[in-house]
DNA sequence: TCATAATGCTATGTCACATAACAGTCAATC
DNA sequence: GATTGACTGTTATGTGACATAGCATTATGA
C-alpha cells in the first residue's frame, strides 16, 4: 500500500469498505459541498450562482449552442434552464437568434458584456479553487481532475 | 445537426482556468451527483437513503455518540437529524440512553438489527462504488480518496 | 445568582431540482 | 401526403434536502 491512513487500527484483511470514511462517495459529497459553499460565496460578489455561471460559460465557450444542448451538456432538465436563461438575458449577457434550418431551436450567442462577465465570474471561481486546493500540488490537482472526470464521464470515446 | 463542441487546442503553458472543464469543482459536482444517484438507487433496495445510512454508520462506528456529535461530524444541522433518528429508531436500529453526567444528552447505541443493517447497507454502497470506480486502479482509488479528504477536512488531523 | 451556552426538538422557510403537460416544428414511414 | 413519433422551448407544479428561528431544559462559570 502506498499510503496509510493515520486513523484507527485497520485489519489488513479488512481491506474492504468497513467504515463511512472508506467510501469515496462520502468524501466526494463532503468535498463537493465544501466547494459549492466556496463557489457560492465567491459568486455572490458578482450577484450570480454556480448554475447560471455554468450556463453562461457554455454559451461563451460554444457560441450558437442551443438551450437543449446546454442541458444535455450540463446534465440538467430543459425546464430548469428557462428562468436561468431569462435572468442572463435580462442582464444582457447573451442574445437569441433563430436557427436557419430548424425553427424550433434558438441559437445563443454571448454579447460583449457576456464575455466580460464570463471572464470575471471564472476568475472569482478560480480564486476560490486556488484556496480550496492550496494543499495539493499542481500535479495532484491535475490528477484529481482527471480521476473525477473518469468517474462521471461516459465510457464513449469523447474528447481527449 | 447539433454543434460539435470543437475545443480549441490547449496550450500546456496555459495552466490557468479558462473553461468550465478546467474547474476541479465542476468535476467534483458532476462526480458527486453521479455517485449520489448510484448510492440512492442502491439503497432503495434497503428502503433507506444516503443520510440515514451515514447517521446509522456514525452510531455503529461510535456507540454512545450523541445526536449533536453526529451532526458536527457529518456537517448537518441538529434540526434535520431529528426525523432521521426517529425513522431509524422506529425500525429498531438503535436505542437511546440517558447520559449519566449530563441530562441533556442522549447516548445512542446500535441494536443487533442496527449492526446488521449497517453491514448490509454498506455492502450495497460498496457494490455501487466498485462499479463507479471500475476504471480506476486500486492505487488511483486510494489516491482519489486521499485528495478528496485533503480538500474538505480541516487542517488539523481530525477524524470524522 | 445571573449570564451564557449546549442539547434535543418544533415549526417553518428556501431553494435546487424533477415531473407532467403543452403547442409548434421537424423527420420518417406508410 | 397524412400520420406517427420525436424534439424544442415553455409553463405549472411537486418534492426533497437543507437552513433558520425559536423553544424548554440543563449545564457551566464568572
Automatic annotation (TrEMBL), chains A, B:
<dbReference type="Pfam" id="PF01047">
    <property type="entry name" value="MarR"/>
</dbReference>
<keyword id="KW-0804">Transcription</keyword>
<keyword id="KW-0238">DNA-binding</keyword>
<protein>
    <submittedName>
        <fullName>MarR family transcriptional regulator</fullName>
    </submittedName>
</protein>
<dbReference type="InterPro" id="IPR000835">
    <property type="entry name" value="HTH_MarR-typ"/>
</dbReference>
<keyword id="KW-0805">Transcription regulation</keyword>
<dbReference type="InterPro" id="IPR036390">
    <property type="entry name" value="WH_DNA-bd_sf"/>
</dbReference>
<dbReference type="InterPro" id="IPR036388">
    <property type="entry name" value="WH-like_DNA-bd_sf"/>
</dbReference>
<feature type="domain" description="HTH marR-type">
    <location>
        <begin position="21"/>
        <end position="153"/>
    </location>
</feature>
